[in-house]
Amino acid sequence: MVNWKSRRFGDVLWIVNMILLAVLLNIIANLFSFRIDLTEEKRYTIKDQTIALLENLDEEVYVEVYLGGELNAGFRRFRKSIEETLEEFSIHSGKRVRYAFTDPATAMGQKARNEFMADLAARGIQPTNVVDKKDGQRVEKIIFPGAIISYGGFETGVMLLKGNKAASSEEIINQSIEGVEFELANAIHKLVNTDRKQIGFVDGHGELDSLEIAAFNNQLLEFYDVFRVDLSRKSDLSRYEVLIVAKPKYEYSPLEKYRLDQFIMRGGKVMFLIDKLEASMDSASREDYFAFPYRHNLDDQLFRYGARVNLDLVQDQNAALYPIVTGQVGGKPQMQLIDWPFFPLISSYPEHPITRNLDAVITRFASSIDTVKAEGVKKTPLLVTSKYSRSVGAPVNISVDKLRSMSAAQFDKSAIPIGYLLEGKFTSLYKNRFLPEGADPAGFRPEGDFSRIVVIADGDIARNEINPRSGQPQELGFDPFSNYTFANRDFLMNTLAFLTDEAGLIQTRNKQIKIRPLDRQRIQDEKTFWQIVNVSLPLVVLIAFGVVRSFIRKRRYASF
User: Fold this and answer.
1) pLDDT in tens, 495-536
2) What is the average pLDDT across 9-29?
3) 121 three-class SS
4) Any residues with CB less than 8 A from the CB of 521 and at least 6 apart, and which?
5) Among candidate residues 497, 393, 436, 490, the one with its CA nearest the CA of residue 165
């Protein structure tokens, strides 16, 4: 017979109740799961745009990250961040995102490893040489900080290690961690997206030809449908999300300008990549070579929208290298790579999703840009020169011999803008003016819908170099003299993503993760104190706990 009042039965009943409560709480947690991000910068919180993308996945996404194996502390932190992001992706996608970490060095055989690594490089995952110390010895390891993402029978490679290469290694890794969500989400969106937007390259005015813009065009084709647009012919421009004007040399007719203007008035976006002055390195060895203006006839239109490209060229001490003949030895010219100030390297950016954590961008013969009053238009600088720059008004003498007479004191200007983002409701160039001959007055709009315009005072920012041996286009941003690939491609693709507002994913580039390094000087000064605290404090707490417990037990049982 059960004694309902016995202490033993009460203990058993209490244990059973606790077990049932734990089971009930687990069932409720599975039905109504939630996560709380307690970090100051919300580093574990996924943006709403990414969540919307993940929740609408129809099939499984498989992500293979090539950061397995033994890594140093910095890359272990990087790998941990990627793993945490992918875990969040998996949760928000209903477990449709699956991932694994692989070490390419574990491939069987040297030949298999080489083929595997060459395949990764061909997919855009470039190797990085990591130097570390182990047991007092210098250890080098080649890693591939990227991933292959597969969805619906298609796959794409994504480079995860990015950032401004001028920063320290710790800052580069931190910048890469900040961009992990965008890079992964953007790659998934590229595979998932079936409603591809259309981009048009305006043609017919001496713009960059198909070979000069091949690298940019191929990159665009991964995300968009790309077409050539002839403004001289009447066509439906509304199907294009963005029109790109890439380094025109010849004049736009009034009717072509009108069609471009009305495209903007109807909410279309335009990227102007404009060279104001005709300049070339082919004639830079001549002392009498001067750069004179192009007559593309777009100045008044840009002025009405809020920007003015000036008749000058920007020079910067932070510039790309170029081979210059410095003398003769044995009848042969001697070449030396020097900083060519007409090729500014842009590495300091205003805070904006387009340029956040971006590596340096190479420009060639860029002009400065001023903003002018335009009601309802917000103007944001995107590209600015360094603290040691200047602008030289036209006509500009472009001569190698001028380098010898330049001094650091001449570069007395700072942050000269050469690129602007304009946002708002623009006013038509033809408001309160006669329309050009051939224009349809019935569809004329004097005021526009909300739109965006990007003005870059350098047409060559989108031009790729041509391999002189093979005649094939090289990667956009590749500089053959320094053998370095600058971030021109990333800048232009980020700009297009912002203009087209592809699922709003560009906003995920605003994520910020703070570095909280320890104070090394304080560590050195207080090292002994904290060692004593860490060793003695646990012992003091343990002894105090024993004394208090003994005192309590003595008082409790002394009466028996």
Assistant:
1) 998 998 755 777 766 666 665 555 667 777 788 888 888 888
2) 80
3) helix
4) none
5) 490
* Cα(527)–Cα(522) distance, integer angstroms: 8
Report which residue type is found at 252.
Y
Question: Which phi and psi (to 5°) does residue 277 adopt?
Answer: -115, 145
Distances from the Cα of 289 to the Cαs of 10, 280, 402, in angstroms?
A: 101, 10, 11
Span 115-132, pLDDT tens digits: 777 777 777 788 887 776
User: Which residues are CB-contacts of 353 (< 8 A; sequence separation ≥ 6)?
Assistant: 494, 498, 506, 507, 509, 510
- Enter the tokens of residue 87: 């875990």
Output the six-digit token pair for 85.
């992001």
Residue 429 exposed, middle or buried by CB count within 10 Å (0-12, 13-18, 19+): buried
Contact call for residues 65 and 99 (beta carbons, < 8 A) = yes
Q: How far apart are CA 428 and CA 524, in angstroms?
A: 65
Contact 477, 361 (CB under 8 A): yes
Please check whether residue 352 is in contact with residue 340, taking contact to mean a CB–CB distance below 8 angstroms. no
Distances (CA, A) of 108 to 103, 128, 423: 12, 21, 54
Token representation of residue 101: 């970490």
More confident of the two residues 64 and 323:
64
Q: How far apart are the first and last CA of the chain?
A: 32
Backbone CA torsion sign across 380, 385, 391, 395: negative
Are 320 and 461 in contact, with CB atoms under 8 Å apart?
no
pTM > 0.85:
no
CA distances from 484 to 183, 321, 348, 356, 378 (A): 22, 11, 18, 20, 35
Within 10 A of 321 (CB to CB), how many other CB atoms are there? 16
